[in-house]
Structure formats: C-alpha cells, structure tokens
Amino acid sequence: MMFTKAERSPALRAKGQAALGSLLRHGRLGGGDALHLHLVTEGASRDIGLGLLRDLLRGAAFRHQVIVHDVNELTEKLFPIVEAMQKHFSAGSGTYYSDSIFFLSVAMHRIMPKEITQIIQVDLDLKYKTNIRDLFDEFDNFPEGAVIGIAREMQPVYRHTFWQYRRENPQTKVGDPPPDGLPGFNSGVLLLNLEAMRQSKLYNQLLEPAMVQKLTEKYHFKGHLGDQDFFTMVGMEHPELFHVLDCTWNRQLCTWWRDHGYSDVFDQYFQCEGEVKIYHGNCNTPIPED
User: Fold this and answer.
1) pLDDT tens digits along 153-180
2) For the chain, how many helices (H) and strands (E)?
C-alpha cells in the first residue's frame, strides 16, 4: 500500500489507521502463513507509517513482516517503463516524473524481486470486513491467461470517458453497466499475479508505447486515473487478461457521477448484491461504522 505525504495530512493518517486496523482485526492466517506488508513511502511518512504499524501489529495473532519501499527509488525504476502511457492516463497534459508511482501496479512485475510471485495492492481508503487470506485465495480462481484480479468500476465514469467511441459504435458494450456491459475497472483492490505478468507475452506487448498509442487512438481515450485507466482500456480489448472480482471485494461508495449528469443510469452501475467484504470510501466518502 502507498503511504506518502502523511506528515501533511491528518486525514491520510486516519485512513491508514482505519484500513490497517480493520485488516488486522479480521486477519486469520494458517500456521505456515505470514502476512507480508509492503509499504511504499518516503521521508517523514515512513516514520509515521512504521509507528502506526508497530502499534497495530502489537499482539497480532499471526506472523508478519513489514517491507518498506522508498517511493523515489521505485519511481526511478518505473518512469522509463510507464513514461509513454502517463500522458494518456494522468490529469493535465504533461508527463510528470512524480506521477509514475500511480502506475506502480502496471509494471510491478518488472521491479519487484523475482521471488515475489503474487501480491495484493490496495488503496488506503478501505475497510476490511473479512479475512484478507480469503482475498488471497482468489488467485486460485484465475482462469488461464489471466494475470490481474480486479473489480468493476461502480460509477458511469467510463461511460463518460468513452463517449466518442460509444457514439461511433452505438452497438458497443464499452462503458455499459453490468451484468452484460463493460463498465471498466476500479483499481482500489488489485490482485497481481506477478509471475503470470512476467510470463505473459501479450501483457508485456501492451506496455509498449506503440501499443498504448494504438489503443488510445482506437478508443479516443484520455483519462486521469492512472493504472485504473490503463487496465480499463486494455480490458476492453483483452478481457482474458483479467479475473473479475465480485463487487463485494471492492464495494465502492463514491456517488459523484450521480450528481454530474448520470442520475438516470447511475444505479445500474452502483448496485452490488451480497455481503460486503471490503468497503472502499473513494472520493472521501464516509465508510459505514461497524
């Protein structure tokens, strides 16, 4: 998980405490299992994050290890890989070096040690209602060829982003709501099969600047949500690369698009049946109390 600029944001610290607290409260691991927490951070945030984890992990009922990654070191490795795609999936028109970290998941397989074969990347604005071990078991449900597990986006954001492609292709399912449509993805909860990503010739071809350019032109795509935009666009072309997680694993709560032109179709995207396993308080939406 990412934990940066925490020294300037009490709200971020509170989110981190809530997310990690709920994760550890519900965590149950087998005798041979250990929880490896990867913290991507820098400077003062590093000390705050480690202090937070030290307090929360005190008395944990399972083995655990905290691995710290310096955000600047990761950015240095990431930038050459993701530079070309940043202009298509970042806010503003420039390609900023510091924005590379928002594409960490896209190229995680290239920068993590080879002995790490699977990893779960999560946003900080989450609240866990079930055992994180059960989410890890979802790796066993990946169909052949899938390299990433990810839930659907639960707002019509990509109905909006793909407006031109939809107008030119009125029969398309791109941007349509579930269950039959392709609403795009939300990257708040990501299962990355790093070994499968390394082995997938198709996935690595899609990281090449020429392929990114080709797809953005085909779909007239200009986004601002980083890795989520890349996965969404690729998913329209190659859905076989993704294992779609049930909405209960990333129950998004943001309703911004309901009040910005899409009230008539909003509920078709937002509905989610079943007992919620992870709440996602995206766009600073409050998460229900226990």
Assistant:
1) 999 999 999 999 999 999 999 999 999 9
2) 12, 10
